[in-house]
Amino acid sequence: MSKAAVRRTTSISPSIKQEVEASIESALFTDFSIFTDEPDAMIGIITMEAIWGGLDSAIKMILIEDSVNEAFDEIFNALFSSMFS
Q1: pLDDT at residue 18, as a whole number
Q2: For 15, left (φ over 0), alpha (ψ -120 to 50), or beta?
Q3: What pTM was computed for the model?
Q4: Which of 2, 36, 42, 84 is the most exposed place for a label (fewest CB within 10 A)?
Q5: Read out DSSP for 44-76?
Q6: Number of domain units in the chain
């Protein structure tokens, strides 16, 4: 996950931020304490990044949709107000 993705995801709420922090700690613990052999190395971090990366993609789509809807609302309001004034 990129730095921007982490910031975007953790800005949702304090509980999401805590969950992201806990999942990072858990992934690091798993990879460096449990799965220390090569075939399973880094599986915790890879899985964690995939999960939070998917959530970040959904957040980006929602933000884009909200921005587009807001822009259309402003355009339609401007059109209607100019037509009826």
Answers
A1: 94
A2: alpha
A3: 0.66
A4: 84
A5: HHHHHHHHHHHHHHHHHHHHHHHHHHHHHHHHH
A6: 1
Domain of residue 24 covers 3-83
Give, in degrees to the nearest 5, the angle at Cα 48 between 46 and 54: 100
Q: What is the pLDDT of residues 7-61, one digit of tens each?
A: 888 888 899 899 999 999 999 998 888 877 767 678 888 888 899 889 899 988 9
CB-based contact 10:16 (threshold 8 Å): yes
13 by Cβ neighbours in 10 Å (0-12 / 13-18 / 19+) ranks as exposed
Let me know: does 22 contact 52? Beta carbons within 8 Å: no
Residue 40: predicted pLDDT? 66
With a CB cutoff of 8 Å and minimum separation 6, the contacts of 35 are: 41, 42, 43, 44
Distance (Å, whole) CA 50 – CA 65: 23
Residue 8 one-letter amino acid: R
